[in-house]
Design goal:
Largest sheet: none
Keywords: Membrane, Transmembrane, Transmembrane helix
Radius of gyration: 16 Å
Distance between the termini: 12 Å
Transmembrane segments: 20-47, 59-81, 87-107
Organism: Actinomadura sediminis
Shape: globular
Oligomer: single chain
Structural class: mainly alpha
Protein name: MFS transporter
Length: 120
Amino acid sequence: MGLSCLGEGVCTALLGLPTAAWGALAVWGCAAFADVVYNPTAVAALVSAAGDEVRGRIMSLWSAVATTSLALSAFTTGALIETLGHRVLLVLLGTLMAAPGAAWLLALRTGALSRQTATE
């Protein structure tokens, strides 16, 4: 999960760098693939870590976030693009997405998070 989060963040940040259209398309494809891997993995980790009595609540919360986040992110991103520009915003958002993935992998590597805990 940490690797896909890190990958999506790095790919998003790379989209902010000046590249040819084909390069941007390739990076966007990698980010999209990382997103497809990350989201179900994150939900599965949350649901499997929860007890039976709260799994429905977690799925309801996930559904509410998934439903509202697209509209809220479009509104927020539009305002930020006008203020910062798309390149700065992509690098900033990519860095914000990559940081938790890097922290997760570092915690696994240093032993602060066991592999069994990370996959349960």
